[in-house]
Design brief:
Helices cover 35% and strands 16% of the residues.
Length: 550
């Protein structure tokens, strides 16, 4: 006990490096394996501690916070059971390219690799998911490990890092290092490369920018917009990145997601130059590695990403650039806009018309229960210009991806990993970060029950979150897949539900139920006007099948 309350221990070194590198909030579920770290947090009032009810909730909150701040989201969990519960967030951070640090308390050093109580070898467990897994065995390593964790999580392709700290190295006497990262010097394209790209852009008749998450940084969207306008190039955004480019702009051509209609893909394929900027061009964005075509695209293909492991990973580029895409966009912006040749204008208009047809709200079909698309449509009409929309995984979210016209500073917070349970914790983390903006969480009756308990934080901190739950009494997305692949054979997808409004009221928030379309508008008005959290349960009907994924 002699080491208690010493302000100069290894735990303080770790937290001090975190604090000096801008980490001002951590999410946690406590555990006896990291009591030392927990205690040291007492000396860091600048770090806000959010106590969660489940490690998945804590992890999803950290993912959302990392996405909003571009600093690592940090969550602390206990060994074994805590780490396994939290692992979904490590996977999400990897899929979503989010800087994340998971700190795990570990069994005492002397018990390592003895299969001690709740012991896990985290190198093996997270080896293929995390960018770096570090297990400290000496107190002197904690400060340096914390610094490296911040660097690794935020550099190249951002992603998850796991720091494992045996309980007996947390509160040892240690020097307090001054590990502070300076902003990276932006990696820029060489003058030759710039000249080459300009030449290609000038020559192209039907160029298309495919823009990805790297533009989700301060001023990133401005640079993208300026680039597109300056060269008059239409922009398609990568999977679930609808908020990167104003959806009402004539150059917005839509997203590359799970449900692009064939006619839109046909139009995209007609491009003669694909300029992939700040996107990893993963499975879904590239439509199962068919757009562009493997291995050698039919179009002139230029790919820029700030990670050599990504550029040319799947598709062979005519020109590959390992540099900061935002800096490249800025470098390519001309003082004077080039004259827009008619064929370029026709090309942009063709993609825009296609997008507008797809984005048009479909007519509502009368029937039993509420068509959730009506809720999304009413929400789009009412949502504040800076609303943050947080989505869970499920069919209820499909109309948001397709029809909600995002214009920044409106934000879309949705897991690229498709992880259920993300919506509620992401909404809490978003509201904590931007307490003056309205946050809207859209969840399903399946996904809500995975992490919905985290909404208690919205009540405790009076966060202005509107929770909208689609109750279709089903894991609807999977049921729809069954309908397509095994018609009429439903198993394991019906849900027997509790009284959701009673749950929300028991949590301490106002709640109401919408059982028919005529009630939607007034309910949304009440929910959006509320100062604190508000809960609307919509008795929704089952909807059609998504093409694949969720
Ligand atoms: C953690 C996790 N488990 C399982 C899945 C597979 N899955 C994707 S969507 C879905 C059903 C979602 O149901 P619900 O939240 O009720 O929304 P709905 O599809 O009914 O609108 C499931 C089980 C997943 N994506 N994530």
């Amino acid at each position: 006990m002699t080491n208690l309350h010493k302000p100069h221990t290894s735990a303080h070194a770790l937290l001090s490096v975190f604090a000096h590198n801008g980490i001002d909030r951590v999410f946690l579920v406590p555990g006896e394996s990291y009591l030392g770290l927990l205690d040291a947090l007492n000396e860091f009032p600048e770090i806000d501690v959010i106590t969660c009810r489940h490690e998945a909730g804590a992890g999803f909150m950290a993912c959302a916070d990392g996405r909003l701040t571009r600093r690592p989201g940090v969550f602390l969990v206990s060994r074994g059971p805590g780490a396994t519960n939290g692992s979904i967030a490590v996977h999400t951070a990897q899929q979503d390219a989010i800087p994340l640090i998971l700190v795990v308390g570990q069994v005492p050093k002397s018990d390592l690799r003895r299969q001690a109580f709740q012991e896990i070898d985290y190198q093996k467990m997270f080896g293929s998911v995390a960018k770096w897994v570090a297990e400290a065995t000496d107190p002197s390593q904690l400060g340096e490990a914390a610094f490296k964790a911040v660097r690794v999580a935020t550099s190249g392709t951002p992603g998850p890092v796991v720091l494992v700290i045996p309980e007996d190295v947390q509160q040892q006497e240690a020097v307090q290092p001054q590990w502070i990262a300076h902003d990276d010097v932006a990696t820029t394209a060489t003058p030759d490369a710039l000249r080459e790209i300009r030449g290609l852009l000038d020559k192209a008749e039907r160029p298309l920018i495919v823009a990805g998450g790297a533009f989700d940084v301060p001023q990133g969207r401005d640079a993208l917009l300026a680039l597109a306008q300056s060269w008059h190039i239409p922009v398609a955004v990568s999977f679930r990145r609808q908020d990167l480019f104003p959806n009402d702009h004539a150059l917005y051509a839509g997203d590359l997601g799970l449900a692009n209609p064939a006619r839109q893909m046909e139009a995209f394929h007609a491009a003669d130059l694909i300029f992939a900027l700040g996107t990893r061009l993963g499975d879904i964005t590239s439509q199962g590695y068919t757009f562009p075509r493997l291995p050698r695209p039919e179009q002139i293909f230029v790919h820029c990403y700030a990670d050599a492991g990504v550029v040319g990973q799947h598709f062979a580029p005519d020109l590959g650039l390992v540099c900061n895409p935002v800096a490249l966009a800025r470098d390519l912006i001309r003082e004077h806009a080039p004259s827009v040749r008619p064929h370029r204008r026709d090309w942009a208009a063709r993609l825009r018309v296609c997008f507008e047809q797809i984005a048009a709200w479909p007519p509502s079909v009368p029937g039993e229960r509420v068509d959730f698309i009506e809720v999304v449509r009413a929400l789009a009409q009412r949502a504040a210009l800076d609303a943050i929309v947080c989505l869970d995984a499920g069919t209820f979210a499909a109309p948001v991806y397709r029809h909600f016209p995002f214009v920044y500073p409106q934000r879309l917070m949705a897991p690229l990993s498709g992880a259920m349970g993300y919506g509620t914790p992401a909404a809490v983390a978003s509201a904590l970060r931007f307490p003056r903006q309205k946050v809207i969480a859209l969840v399903g009756d399946g996904s809500f029950m995975m992490t919905g308990n985290e909404m208690i934080a919205a009540v405790a901190r009076k966060l202005p979150i509107l929770f909208i739950l689609s109750n279709n009494q089903s894991y609807g997305s999977i049921r729809a897949h069954q309908d397509r692949d095994y018609p009429g054979r439903h198993l394991g997808t019906d849900l027997f539900n509790p009284d959701f409004t009673a749950i929300a009221r028991a949590f301490g928030m106002q709640a109401e139920q919408v059982s028919q379309a005529s009630q939607i508008d007034a309910a949304l008005d009440r929910g959006l006007d509320a100062d604190g959290p508000y809960f609307i349960e919509v008795l929704s009907r089952l909807s059609g099948a998504p093409p694949r994924g969720d």
